[in-house]
């Protein structure tokens, strides 16, 4: 094609790091297993939180109690905290590689694409969870650093309508569909770094900053809980064995990470009604050897009817596990089957994800094997709502991936995904959250761009058309507001940082406009009267790199959104920076850049 896609504009912040630090830091005896399990089971709250309640401990925000599951109580397995004597007979010999390739997409970053996915495949069995109109609250301390575990409360006319805690990156996402259509909401933040209060408008900016007055207080060592929620039915045999190997690889590859967190590992294993058990819980433990032994005993059996009881497993994950109060809380769901949605009870995956937001638990979901779009849809709802990512294990697919058997796992992610070894992706995700709460610089690669190189097989116009088509698709996918084919968008001419680049800026602008008309991602607004509008506003084209000025022009053009570009020359190549700007608020919705070899210019 003549285009090299480096990272597909996945934010460089996700080039990250280190679940494993923790694995090596583990030592000590495990807690009494039976007692810990009973304590988890009995610690559920039976009431909704009320305004009169003082802010509770973060790990135990009061939440609706699930109904007693009498039909499945008898089929739940006992908790296991370690293998019987002799079960770990062979010496531990870690493999050099899991051989398990995975791709992932970030539906929270790729928000507009995700909304399109929900619309396109909304016919599959699922539970309603309206995430349209999302607003992201970003909580930081006096030094501008992310504040995790801050308690966020949302009120309308004095009534509490939402509550939860911020994730390690300081974010808490508001979903207006659950707020009864109100025009605005009173939001408060409580933290060791101080308090904040403000009003958030439904039609206002999609990102709201909440700056607290004092520096954050990060525990040392930082608590890190990692939970594996694993489907253990018969078809998962190969994946379970490979995932065992992956966990060991993570341990070996991250042994030297510093500072080391205080890590604990746990598991929720699940099958379905009529199998050996519905769920089996392994409590969190600091004892790495004990966890390895418990994992070694996991085997695949049962199943056969395809849907499995993921909802029971998620309910256990958020109510039976004793999560830490002041650190990082991560869960990885691994399955090749869709969720069983036919059982009548007082909990489901939506209620579990709401409790996860209350406790600040992030779920990354992993689709394996022959997972179809029914399963993918639910997994992506779960990961998106809790702030996690959807991961698909690839066995050589064609189409969105490369090589082998097409369609062996469902991953409708467009062109915006990164593929790597599963262990590498897990390390990135864990290290990302740890680094957000650390003063240690984050290692990142400069890969958030698209690149075009001249090849003899096609014209430069064709190459640039593909380049800018991908870049525009990326902007739309990552928009923080919904953009569809009927959204009026104005594409403004790219500005040049130097007069010598003016001719190339005009040429690239034409290519961008043509690519937009071919892709039909939105409705292009005619800009024939652009010069007249600039004169009326006493602006020059060069001034349109300023978002507020560009938004004024866009309003007069009749656009809801703008594409604004600027051209610079760097290291002997052209770089075109593209921004998507919302006219009503002048906020930047998405950013990407394109690197172009000089042979492709004028």
Distance, first to last CA: 20 Å
What's the CATH H-level homologous superfamily of the domain at 449-600?
A: ABC-type transport auxiliary lipoprotein component
Count of helical stretches: 14
Record field, number of beta strands: 23
Form type: globular
| Beta content | 15-25%
Please tell me how large the radius of gyration is: 25 Å
Average predicted local confidence, pLDDT: 75
Spans where pLDDT lies below 50 across 5 or more residues: 1-98, 396-408, 442-447
Largest sheet: 8 strands, mixed
CATH topology of the domain at 449-600: Rossmann fold
Reported CATH architecture of the domain at 449-600: 3-Layer(aba) Sandwich
User: Roughly what percent helix?
Assistant: 25-40%
- Broad CATH class of the domain at 449-600: Alpha Beta
Estimated structural class: alpha/beta
Oligomer: single chain
Provide a descriptive summary of the structure in words.
This protein has helices at 20-25, 33-42, 70-73, 111-120, 237-253, 288-296, 310-319, 349-359, 373-386, 422-436, 460-477, 502-519, 530-536, 547-557, and strands spanning 3-6, 101-105, 135-140, 151-156, 159-165, 171-174, 184-191, 194-201, 207-211, 223-231, 262-270, 279-285, 328-335, 362-367, 390-394, 418-421, 449-452, 488-491, 495-496, 523-524, 561-570, 573-582, 588-596. Among the domains are: 135-211, Sandwich (Immunoglobulin-like); 449-600, 3-Layer(aba) Sandwich (Rossmann fold), CATH 3.40.50.10610. The longest helix has 18 residues, at 460-477. With 602 residues, the chain is of the alpha/beta class. It has 14 helices and 23 strands. The model is unreliable at 1-98, 396-408 and 442-447 (pLDDT under 50).
């Amino acid at each position: 094609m003549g285009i090299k896609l480096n990272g597909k504009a996945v934010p460089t912040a996700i080039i990250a790091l280190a679940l494993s630090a923790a694995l090596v830091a583990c030592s000590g005896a495990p807690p009494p297993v039976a007692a810990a399990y009973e304590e988890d089971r009995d610690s559920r709250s039976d009431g909704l939180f009320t305004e009169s309640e003082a802010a509770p401990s973060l790990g135990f925000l009061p939440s609706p109690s699930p109904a007693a599951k009498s039909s499945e109580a008898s089929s739940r397995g006992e908790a296991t905290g370690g293998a019987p004597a002799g079960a770990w007979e062979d010496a531990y010999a870690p493999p050099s590689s899991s051989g398990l390739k995975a791709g992932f997409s970030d539906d929270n970053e790729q928000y507009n694409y995700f909304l399109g996915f929900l619309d396109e495949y909304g016919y599959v069995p699922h539970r309603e969870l309206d995430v349209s109109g999302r607003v992201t609250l970003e909580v930081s301390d006096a030094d501008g650093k992310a504040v995790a575990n801050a308690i966020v409360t949302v009120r309308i006319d004095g009534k509490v309508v939402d509550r939860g805690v911020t994730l390690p990156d300081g974010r808490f996402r508001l979903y207006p569909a659950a707020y009864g259509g109100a025009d605005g909401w009173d939001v408060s933040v409580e933290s060791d770094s101080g308090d904040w209060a403000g009003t958030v408008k439904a039609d206002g900016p999609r990102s709201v900053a909440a700056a607290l007055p004092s520096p954050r207080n990060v525990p040392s060592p930082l608590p890190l809980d990692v939970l594996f929620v694993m489907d253990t039915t018969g078809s998962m045999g190969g994946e379970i064995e490979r995932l065992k190997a992956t966990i060991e690889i993570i341990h070996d590859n991250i042994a030297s990470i510093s500072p080391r967190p205080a890590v604990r590992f746990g598991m929720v294993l699940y099958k379905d009604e009529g199998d050996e058990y519905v769920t089996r819980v392994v409590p969190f433990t600091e004892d790495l050897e004990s966890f390895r032994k418990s994992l070694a005993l996991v085997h695949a059996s049962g199943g056969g009817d395809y849907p499995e009881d993921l909802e029971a497993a998620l309910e256990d994950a958020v109510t039976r596990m004793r999560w830490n109060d002041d650190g990082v809380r991560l869960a990885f769901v691994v399955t090749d089957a869709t969720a069983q949605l036919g059982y009548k009870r007082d909990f489901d995956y939506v209620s579990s994800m709401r409790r996860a937001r209350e406790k600040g638990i992030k779920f990354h979901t992993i689709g394996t094997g022959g997972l179809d779009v029914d399963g993918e849809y639910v997994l992506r709802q779960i990961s998106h709502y809790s702030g996690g990512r959807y991961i698909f294990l690839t066995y050589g697919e064609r189409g969105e991936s490369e090589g082998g058997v097409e369609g062996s796992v469902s991953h409708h992610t467009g062109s915006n995904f990164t593929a790597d070894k599963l262990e590498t992706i897990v390390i990135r995700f864990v290290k990302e959250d740890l680094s957000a709460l650390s003063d240690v610089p984050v290692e990142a690669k400069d890969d958030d761009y698209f690149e075009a190189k001249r090849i003899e097989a096609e014209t430069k116009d064709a190459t640039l058309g593909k380049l800018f088509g991908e870049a525009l698709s990326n902007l739309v996918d990552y928009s923080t507001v919904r953009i569809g084919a009927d959204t009026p968008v104005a594409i403004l001419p790219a500005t040049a940082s130097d007069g010598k680049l003016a001719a190339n800026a005009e040429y690239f602008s034409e290519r961008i406009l043509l690519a937009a008309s071919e892709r039909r991602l939105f409705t292009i607004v005619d800009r024939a009267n652009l010069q007249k509008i600039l004169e009326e506003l006493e602006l020059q084209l060069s001034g349109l790199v300023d978002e507020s000025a560009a938004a004024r022009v866009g309003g007069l053009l009749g656009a809801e959104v703008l594409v604004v570009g600027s051209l610079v020359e760097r290291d002997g190549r052209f770089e075109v920076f593209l921004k998507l700007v919302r006219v009503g608020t002048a906020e930047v919705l998405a950013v990407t850049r394109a690197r172009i070899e000089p042979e492709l210019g004028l």
